[in-house]
Amino acid sequence: MFGRSRLDVKTPDQIRKMRLAGMVVGETLELIRDLARVGATTGELDKAAEDLIRSKGATPSFLGYHGYPGSLCVSVNEEVVHGIPGPRTLVLGDLVSIDCGAILDGWHGDAAISLIVGGREAGSAPDLALMDATEDSMWAGIAALAVGCPLYDVGAAVEDCIVDAARADGLTYGIIEDYVGHGIGTEMHQDPQVPNYRVRDRGPIVRSGVTLAIEPMVTLGSAETDVLDDEWTVMTQDGSRAAHWENSVAVTDAGLWVLTALDGGEQRLKSLGATYAPQD
Ligand code: MF3
Ligand code: CO
């Protein structure tokens, strides 16, 4: 699984194209964040996402991917990832992870957010803590990236962040190991895989122009998962709730550019002491 695959690198021009695809994804997720209200169906969110993606001249990358039937993955509560949109109605306090991918001019963007239906005031304390810890761990993983670093430093940073948060929050968190981050570019999933936990190996050394999707998935219980009979929906085995955050990021000699974040990651990277380096 963790083969020493060589890291594909992109030119500055290709990274700028990936930024445009990433912006479509980032804008779509902002729209869906707003639409994910009490009474909305997950299918309605999917339709709105597909319409927005297409209105930007882009294509939803998930639709038809190995037969996947949606433009979004909408994973509710104990669903971890790959939840299929449909007639399910969102209710107050649902913890929902929305994953979105788009292709523009042949280049991919892939990102995910988690949210509480009805806003933070509708969320239980553990759900809010889980959501925030998972987001923080994504940023910690991204901030660990730099040219010359071993790639698997990402997983160590994610794990350290989650372990610290579990202690601070007085909660048990499980980091999913069955699904991992990945390279991204002219395909949604490229080598290498990026585990969200510490591994023995250091992994390949990051080079300038590497583009990756960093995507921790964390539960309020055990990390064990099952796939439903629909062959997509990933559930926690113990029924605990899960959160998922993802961004696509470019690593260059200058620093980091978070391609699917509307601000390019500027705010969070700076607060973590990482170098924000847009290539435009
Ligand atoms: N965004 C997911 C990932 O990061 C992929 C979604 S699976 C699909 O790997 F089939 F819906 F595309
Ligand atoms: Co991904």
Q: So what's the overall shape?
A: globular
Report the mean per-residue pLDDT as an integer: 97
Span between termini: 35 Å
Which class best fits the helix and strand makeup? alpha+beta
Number of helices: 5
* Sheet with the most strands: spatial strand order: 8-7-9-14-15
Helix content: 25-40%
| Largest sheet geometry | 5 strands, antiparallel
Low-confidence residue ranges? none
Query: What small molecules does the structure contain?
Result: 2-amino-4-trifluoromethylsulfanyl-butyric acid, cobalt (II) ion
Count of beta strands? 15
Fraction of residues in β-strands:
15-25%
The value of Rg in angstroms is 17 Å
Order of helices and strands: HHEEEEEHHEEEEEEEEEEH
Write up what this structure looks like.
The chain is α+β, with helices and mostly antiparallel strands. It has five helices and 15 strands. It has a five-stranded antiparallel β-sheet with strand order 8-7-9-14-15. Strands 1, 2, 4 and 5 form a four-stranded antiparallel β-sheet that branches. Strand 4 (95-104) and strand 5 (107-116) form a beta hairpin. Helix 3 (125-143) packs antiparallel against helix 4. The chain is globular, with a radius of gyration of 17 Å. The termini are far apart. The mean pLDDT is 97. Cobalt (II) ion (CO) is lined by residues 110, 182, 213, 215, 246. 2-amino-4-trifluoromethylsulfanyl-butyric acid binds next to strand 4.
